[in-house]
Write a structure and sequence with these properties.
The protein folds into two domains: 253 residues, NADH Oxidase (3-Layer(aba) Sandwich), CATH 3.40.109; 191 residues, NADH Oxidase (3-Layer(aba) Sandwich). 26% of the residues lie in helices and 21% in strands. The protein is built from twelve helices and 17 strands. The chain has a seven-stranded antiparallel β-sheet with strand order 1-6-5-4-7-9-8, with helices on both faces. Strands 10-13-12-11-14-16-15 form a seven-stranded antiparallel β-sheet, sandwiched between helices. It has a three-stranded antiparallel β-sheet with strand order 3-2-17, with no helix packed on it. Helix 4 crosses helix 5 and helix 5 crosses helix 11. The protein is globular. The structure holds flavin mononucleotide. Flavin mononucleotide binds next to helix 5 and strand 15.
Length: 482
C-alpha cells in the first residue's frame, strides 16, 4: 500500500453524492445536535469571548420545516421536523462541530471549557488544563473545533465525514474572520495528534475528534503563571442524552481514514501554480476591501431562488478574494484553487475561469461554445437556483497525499471549509446571498476544471442577489438579523 491509499479508497466513495444513504437514512437514529454538561459546572463567559463564541457557534434561529427530506419517511413520533440553526452553514443543516476553549484568559480560571450553545455559557470540563497538555506547547489560549461524526453519518454514511471536515473548517473560518481586524490574532493549526487532546477532554474517540485548532494570541490573554490550578484528575462527562454516539462501525472507510490521520508525515507539498491549468484571456478584477465580520449577522443560505439582477464586477472580486486567502494557517491557502462559473456578472463574459491570486484576475478556460452555455454543463445548476455565479474550491489531492499522507485529506477539506465561510461572509457583507453545495459528481466537475481530472472540486458556493425566501424562521438570538 502506498502513502495516502486509505484516503484514496475513501475518496472513491465520498466523491459521489450519497443518494442511497440519504434514501435509506433512519431519522430515528439522528443524534442530538448539541452537547451539554451538568449545569453545576457552568460559568459565565467573559467578553470578548462570549461574543466570539456566540457568533461562531451560538443558536440564532429556529427554522420550521414543512416536510421531510425528499424520499424519506420521517418517524411519526419523537422527531421534531424543525431545527435550531447557527451563524455558520452546515452540511445537511446538521451542525457537527463543538467548540472548546483551553488555557487562560482574563476573567477565566485556567482550564478546558466547552461552549454550551443552548445556554450561551461555558462549562468547565477540566480545571487546570493548558494547551501544553494537548501537545500545543507554544499557545496560551486556543479554541478547538471538533467533529461529532455521527451527526452526519446517520444520514450520509461515509460521505458524512467529508461534510464533518468541511463543517469544522467553516467554524474555524468564522472564528478566524471574527478575530481578524481586532487586536487579537488567530491562526489555524491543522497538524496535531487528536488522541491526547481527546484524552484530556474525555472524548470517546469513536464519537468525537478534534479537527482544527485556532490559536489565539494578543492583549487580553494572560499567562497561566504560578496560579495555575492543579489539573483535575479526569474530565467532566457530558449528559447521557447529549453524549456523542460512536458510529464508526457503520462507516469502515471513515474509521480507517480517521485512524490513519493521526499524524502528518512529511513537509507540506509545494503550493500548486497556475501553469498547465489552461487559463487563457485575462479578466482583471478591481481591488475591493471587505470586512468579513460585517457579514456575520446577515449570513444565511439562500433557500429560494436568487434575485434576477446581475452581480457587479466588485461583487465577484470581493467573494473570490475572500476565498483565496487572508488567513493564517499551517496549510497555505494557496493549496486551494478557486474556479468561478460566471453566469450574470456585469462586464464579465459568461464562462468558466480560474483565479490568479498573484495578479488578482480571472483567467478564462477554453469552452466549446460562447454565450449562455459557456459556463459549461453546470450552467443548469446556476440556472436552477437563479445564481449569478458559482465558485468551486478545488485542490490537487495527489501532491499532498504523496508527501503528508492520509491526513492531507482532512487538512485540505478543513482549508476548503475556511475558504467557503469567507466567501459566504464576503457575500453577506455586500448584501448578497450565498448557498454552499456539495451534491455534485466530483468526476464530472473535475473534467470541467482540468482535462486530466486531477484537480478535484471540494465544495461549491453559489452567489447571487437576495431573492425569494421559502423557509419560515423565528429568531432565537437578538444579535442576528433574519
Ligand atoms: C459543507 C456544506 C455542504 C452543504 N451542501 C449543501 C448541498 O449540497 N445542497 C444544499 O442545498 N445546501 C447545502 N449546504 C447548505 C446547508 O443546507 C445550510 O447551510 C444549512 O441548512 C443551514 O442553513 P443556513 O446556512 O441558512 O444557516 C451545505 C452547507 C455546508 C457548510
Amino acid at each position: 500500500m502506498s502513502r495516502g491509499d486509505t484516503a484514496r479508497r475513501y475518496l472513491g466513495v465520498a466523491e459521489r453524492p450519497p443518494i442511497d444513504a440519504m434514501n435509506s437514512a433512519d431519522w430515528r437514529t439522528m443524534p442530538p445536535l448539541v452537547k451539554r454538561y451538568g449545569r453545576h459546572a457552568a460559568v459565565p463567559i467573559p467578553e470578548p469571548l462570549g461574543d466570539l463564541l456566540a457568533s461562531a457557534s451560538g443558536l440564532t434561529r429556529y427554522q420550521w420545516e414543512t416536510g421531510g427530506p425528499a424520499g424519506t419517511t420521517l418517524p411519526e413520533e419523537g422527531y421534531a421536523a424543525g431545527r435550531a440553526y447557527r451563524p455558520v452553514p452546515a452540511g445537511g443543516g446538521l451542525q457537527s462541530s463543538e467548540v472548546y476553549l483551553v488555557g487562560s484568559a482574563d476573567g477565566l480560571e485556567t482550564g478546558a471549557y466547552h461552549y454550551d450553545c443552548a445556554a450561551h455559557s461555558l462549562t468547565r470540563v477540566r480545571r487546570g488544563a493548558v494547551p501544553g497538555d494537548l501537545g500545543l506547547p507554544g499557545a496560551r489560549l486556543c479554541l478547538l473545533v471538533t467533529g461529532v461524526v455521527g451527526r452526519l453519518v446517520f444520514k450520509y454514511r461515509e460521505f458524512g465525514y467529508r461534510l464533518t471536515c468541511l463543517n469544522a473548517g467553516v467554524v474555524a473560518g468564522q472564528l478566524l474572520s471574527l478575530l481578524a481586524g481586532t487586536r487579537w490574532y488567530g491562526r489555524a493549526v491543522l497538524r496535531f495528534d487528536p488522541a491526547p487532546m481527546g484524552d484530556v477532554l474525555g472524548f470517546d474517540a469513536g464519537a468525537e475528534t478534534v479537527l482544527a485548532v485556532v490559536e489565539l494570541a494578543g492583549e487580553p490573554w494572560t499567562d497561566a503563571g504560578p496560579d495555575r490550578p492543579a489539573l483535575d484528575a479526569e474530565a467532566l462527562p457530558p449528559t447521557d442524552r447529549t453524549r456523542p454516539v460512536p458510529m464508526l462501525d457503520s462507516v469502515p472507510l471513515t474509521a480507517a481514514l480517521l485512524g490513519a490521520s493521526r499524524t502528518a508525515d512529511g513537509p507540506p507539498p509545494p503550493v500548486p501554480g497556475l501553469a498547465g491549468l489552461g487559463g487563457g484571456a485575462a479578466e482583471p478584477l478591481p481591488a475591493v476591501a471587505s470586512r468579513l465580520a460585517d457579514g456575520v449577522a446577515r449570513r444565511r443560505s439562500a433557500d429560494g431562488r436568487f434575485g434576477p439582477d446581475p452581480l457587479g464586477r466588485e461583487d465577484l472580486a470581493a467573494v473570490v478574494a475572500a476565498g483565496a486567502g487572508g488567513w493564517e494557517s499551517e496549510v497555505d491557502p494557496g493549496h486551494m484553487l478557486l474556479y468561478a462559473l460566471v453566469h450574470r456578472v456585469d462586464g464579465v463574459p459568461t464562462g468558466r475561469y480560474v483565479y490568479d491570486r498573484g495578479e488578482h484576475r480571472l483567467l478564462r478556460l477554453p469552452s466549446a461554445q460562447d454565450g449562455p452555455g459557456a459556463a459549461g454543463p453546470f450552467a443548469h445548476i446556476l440556472a436552477m437556483h437563479g445564481a449569478a455565479a458559482g465558485l468551486y474550491l478545488a485542490g490537487d489531492y495527489e501532491t499532498g497525499l504523496d508527501t503528508v499522507g492520509d491526513r492531507w485529506y482532512q487538512m485540505l477539506n478543513i482549508t476548503a471549509g475556511i475558504a467557503v465561510q469567507r466567501v459566504c461572509l464576503a457575500a453577506a457583507a455586500r448584501g448578497l446571498g450565498s448557498r454552499v453545495r456539495c451534491s455534485f459528481e466530483a468526476d464530472q466537475v473535475a473534467r470541467q476544471l482540468h482535462p486530466s481530472g486531477r484537480i478535484r472540486p471540494l465544495c461549491q458556493v453559489l452567489i447571487g442577489r437576495i431573492g425569494s425566501e421559502t423557509a419560515y424562521t423565528q429568531p432565537i438570538d437578538g444579535r442576528h438579523t433574519l
